[in-house]
Amino acid sequence: MAGETETERVKTCENCVRAKIRCTHAPDATICDRCYRLKKECYFRLARQRSAPKKRRRNKRIEMLEDKIDQIMGQINLVTPRRPEHPYHTPNSEVSSTYPHADTIDVIKNGLISHESATQLLDQYREAMLFFPFVMVPASTTVDDLRAEKPFVLLCILVFCSFHDNSLQKSLEEVLQSYVSSEVLCSEHDSHPPSFEILQGLLIILAGTRQRHQLCRFPYYMQLAVGVVINERLDRHPKYRVATRLEVGDECDETRRGTVADESRALIGLFLLNSTDAIIRQKTCTTPWTPFIESIAEDLSRVAEYPTDRYIIYYVQLQHMLQRLDALTMTSIERHPDMEQHIRAFRAEVEQYKNQLPVDPTCDPFIATQYHTLELQICQISLIDTKVASTPSDSFLLVSRSDTLCHGLAASKRFLDYYLKLPPVIERNYSIVIWLSSGFLVAAACKLVLAALHPSLRLNTQVQELRDALDMPKMLQFFVARLDAIAKTCKDGVFSHYHKWTLAAATWFDKAYQVAQLEAAKIVENESLRFAEQNQNMDQGIQTDPNLFGLDFDITMEELMGGWSGPLLGIGHV
Fold first, then answer.
1. 6-74 to CATH, choices 4.10.240, 3.50.50, 1.10.3470, 3.40.50
2. pTM of the model
3. b vs e for 146-156, b when ≥16 Cβ sit within 10 Å of the residue's Cβ?
4. Of the segments 64-68, 131-135, 379-383, 389-393, which one has the largest average pLDDT value?
């Protein structure tokens, strides 16, 4: 612009116009600050001639409107850094990004969060990695390292760990959503973040899903992550990831960022997130188990770069067992003739697997939750999810289902005993996988206790002893108190919907428990003699509905889980 008056060229360069951000530069500069920083060619187009005196008033009004537009556009970037005086000097507050437009998500530079607070949140994320060890950040990596190398991952980490301050988290989420929309989904250029960095960031956001407004976006972020895996062929062995059918000459795919181990963890993390949500919410899993997933899990566990890596193979194997079990009810709720044999065989397989585990299931929170879910999922399918087409006359089915009920009651007590002994407020770092599974386990335990109250089981001492030992009403009180303590540690009610759900579940259970007890007492009073004769021996003609011992629930599992998993996808009213 040297040698030209200020009115001869527009005030905003073409690059800033396309990026829709404020263009700042010194009065005599030939390049704006942003183009200088990104090393782009800067061009100011010629302004329209304003020579007609009769339009002077109109031109002044246009100038005022242009200034107002510049002011509004400038609010997109709260802080626009000035070009350093020396071309080779970069202040400590400036971090050179690896791809264009990354400065729009540098929330430290933009003033949304301080460098010190970001460092604290990064340390907090390292603690949370124990509950979702699939996007690892080495201890030597600093906030500035992530700002320079993986700014999208850093933003997702800050969103994940800022639950203690709801207003801050929502501000960070707005930046995240805007960036995903404009630079990932709707970008018209190739300057978006590397695909693997997008996948890692999305996994962090999915794992940290907690609040109602976050949960409604869960399925869309999930499918975006699945799309990245498919597009980058991360679900294949590296030597099969090159698309040769459309290659011409020596062209080949650009080398992806991240190591093979990082890619393996990311694929396994997506598999666990997708599979757990699909099983508990009874939906289609778009990232099922494959032999390749298990093979890379074995490699990670053998090398064990991080302490949690040695458990990854067990995560995959337990989740595969859950998928196989869930497949028994995928096609129809009608019970197959040999369903009971399948259930008994599966329960024996689970017990054998537990005995062969080189570690105790409770040594790792992920393994503990998966194993307890597997135990109760067997009971859920056997007693609740499937129904017998006709009432059999033989007593084998009833005896088998009574045995399943006993296993379920015992498994429920093991889970609740384990859960209530955990350190206080440890749930703040839970991933959505553990939250989902925990909600299912509590809901299933409630239904099993109600099933144990049926009059046909009143002389089954084993069932009654297990039911009394579980003491579900008292357990729910402890559960409510524990989640209340968690909700109080965070302002703005970040975990309040989980606490409200436990209150609603406890209220429903208490009502159903009292009704079941009154009905059982009435039946016993009116037909005590007949019941005494029929229950002398369970193998002698017990006449009762094998479908959950005649218990008719007035609430489905999805309704009971509504306030817990409901926020995940917008259902539920709690």
1. 4.10.240
2. 0.74
3. bbbebbbbbbb
4. 131-135
